[in-house]
Design a protein that fits this description.
Blueprint: H1 3-9, H2 39-59, H3 73-81, H4 88-102, E1 113-118, E2 121-140, E3 148-154, E4 160-167, E5 172-178, E6 183-192, E7 204-211
Antiparallel strand pairs: 1-2, 2-5, 2-6, 2-7, 3-4, 3-6
């Protein structure tokens, strides 16, 4: 064996540790290393940004919320009553409103009243003197109700004074018999029928009156 072969089978008696030293990298002056900012610096920047926003808000004028324009009573009345002043729907609306306003519940008189029907006449007798302004009559329609009315004020001597009259429509529902508003103790209502009509029917009658004080 030669010397090179013998050295290959020899076990080392000591473990040798080799330390390799590497040269430190050269610092490039053109490259800047950014160091992390400290927490105190971040807090100062955040606080200053908040203060700047608060100052900008104070300096800028407040934005007013858009408010709906106020509507006066006259404008509101025009908006309600005159939405379609040149159409047929406006005429129907006004006619319907007039009927609703006129057909409001009537105030009952503060005195006893009796009613008697005989033939084509209906008579109301009041306990006290009252001022009668109108009478509500409910007709059945279909040409079964009266077509005309006459109302009279009756005194103690049975003298008749006409205080109202007019045609009645051939409709189902309430109609208004307008009177002059005279003082009376007895009210006589006379009805007329259409040609060829032998009888008529009245579903209900209500007297709008006020006790004379």
């Amino acid at each position: 064996m030669n010397k090179a072969t013998i050295n290959r089978f020899k076990s080392p008696t000591k473990s040798t540790q080799q330390i390799h030293s590497f040269p430190s990298p050269k610092r490039n002056p053109s490259v800047e290393v950014k160091r992390p900012q400290s927490t105190s610096n971040l807090y100062r920047e955040t606080e200053s940004s908040v203060q700047r926003r608060m100052q900008s808000r104070k300096s800028s004028p407040p934005v007013k919320a858009q408010q709906a324009p106020s509507i006066t009573s006259s404008q509101r009345q025009q908006q309600v009553h005159y939405p379609y002043s040149h159409s047929d729907s406006f005429k129907r609306e006004v006619a319907t409103k007039e009927v609703v306003e006129e057909n409001q519940p009537l105030k009952s008189p503060a005195c006893a009243v009796s009613c008697k029907a005989e033939g084509t006449n209906v008579e109301f007798v009041f306990e006290k003197n009252v001022i009668v302004s109108r009478v509500l009559i409910k007709t059945p329609g279909e040409h079964k109700g009266p077509c005309y009315y006459d109302c009279y004020q009756c005194d103690d001597h049975s003298n008749l004074i006409r205080i109202g009259g007019g045609p009645l429509k051939n409709i189902f529902g309430e109609q208004i018999m307008k009177l002059e508003g005279k003082i009376c103790r007895r009210l006589l209502c006379r009805f007329k029928m259409e040609k060829g009509q032998t009888s008529f029917k009245i579903l209900d009658m209500k007297v709008d009156c006020k006790v004379q004080e």
